[in-house]
Every structure is written in C-alpha cells, then in structure tokens.
C-alpha cells in the first residue's frame, strides 16, 4: 500500500512531458495489445475449432470401443489418436509460425519506435533536472558562503577550546 502512495506521489511530481510520455506508453501498450489480439484471433479460433473437431471425432470413435469394452483395441486407438492429435498440434504450430514471426517483427518495430520517441524526452527531462540542480546550487551559494563566514569564528573558538582541553588533560 505504501508503494502505491509513493508511486502516486512521484507521478504527481513528474513534469508534464514525462506524464505525457507515460500516457503515450500506456495507450501504445493498449493499442498493441488490441492489435495482437485481433491479429491472432482468426488463427486461435481456427486452431480451437480444429482441436474441438478432433476431440469430437475421438469421442465418436472411442464410443464404439467403450461399448464393447475391448481394452486392447481401445488402448491402440487411444495411442494412435494421441499421435494424430500431437501431429495436428505440430501442424497448427507450423502454420502459425510465419504469423508469430510477423507478429514478433511488429512488436520489435513498435518497441523501437517507442524507444526513439522516448529517448529525446528522457534527454530533455535529464537536461531540465541538471538545470534545476544548477539553479538550486547557484541560489544557495551566497547563503552557504554567508554561513561559512558567520560560523568560522565559532569554529576557530571551538578548536581553541578543544586544543586547550586536550593539552590540559595530556599533562
């Protein structure tokens, strides 16, 4: 819970450019997720339909063996159908291979585009942070020097007292 409040506080302190960047990343991620889902939907639907058809076919073929309780034939059929089902899955994977490669290329391209858009913003934010740090240092410099001037006599006096105490105790 504390992490949420901390993250919220940090996000509130971000410059507008960083907030815009976070919003853009979030929306790009959602857009990419929808594109991926839409691109894969026909293939996953097709795979689901084919697998469901194979399962139904297996049920029908195995029903006759279950009625006769021919366990050896049932076992042989199960093994054969298992091999066929595995082959069907491999075939579907092979069919989806080019699409997954294309999808990977699209994801990589989106990632590269995102990095190209984020790099200048990150540089600007870093430059602004450096400028602000320099401004704070420059604004504080006169006060630090005044403090040094005012505290120096006290420091010398304290040093003299400590030296005399040390000498008195050393004897």
Question: What does this protein look like?
Answer:
With 171 residues, the chain is mostly helical. It has one domain. It has three helices and no strands. The chain has helices at residues 2-13, 16-68, 71-170.
What value does the average pLDDT take? 80
Rg of Cα set? 36 Å
Percent of sequence in beta strands: under 5%
Instruction: Tell me the helix content.
Output: over 70%
CA distance, first residue to last residue: 61 Å
How many domains, in number, for the residues?
A: 1
Number of helices: 3
Largest sheet: none
Oligomer: single chain
Spatial shape: elongated
Count of extended strands: 0
Helices and strands, in order, run as HHH
Low-confidence stretches: none
Based on secondary structure, the structural category is: mainly alpha
Question: How would you summarize this macromolecular structure in one to three sentences?
Answer:
The chain has 171 residues and is mainly alpha-helical.
């Amino acid at each position: 819970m504390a992490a949420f409040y901390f993250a919220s506080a940090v996000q509130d302190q971000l410059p507008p450019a960083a907030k815009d960047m976070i919003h853009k990343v979030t929306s790009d991620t959602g857009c990419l997720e929808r594109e991926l889902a839409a691109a894969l939907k026909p293939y996953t639907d097709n795979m689901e339909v084919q697998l469901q058809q194979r399962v139904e076919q297996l049920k029908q073929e195995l029903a006759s063996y279950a009625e006769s309780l021919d366990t050896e034939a049932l076992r042989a059929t199960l093994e054969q159908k298992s091999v066929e089902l595995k082959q069907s899955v491999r075939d579907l994977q092979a069919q989806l291979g080019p699409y997954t490669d294309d999808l990977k290329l699209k994801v990589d391209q989106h990632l590269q585009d995102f990095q190209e858009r984020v790099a200048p913003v990150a540089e600007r934010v870093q430059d602004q942070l450096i400028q602000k740090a320099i401004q704070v240092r420059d604004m504080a410099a006169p006060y630090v020097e005044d403090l040094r001037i005012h505290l120096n006599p006290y420091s010398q006096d304290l040093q003299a007292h400590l030296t005399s105490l040390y000498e008195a105790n050393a004897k």
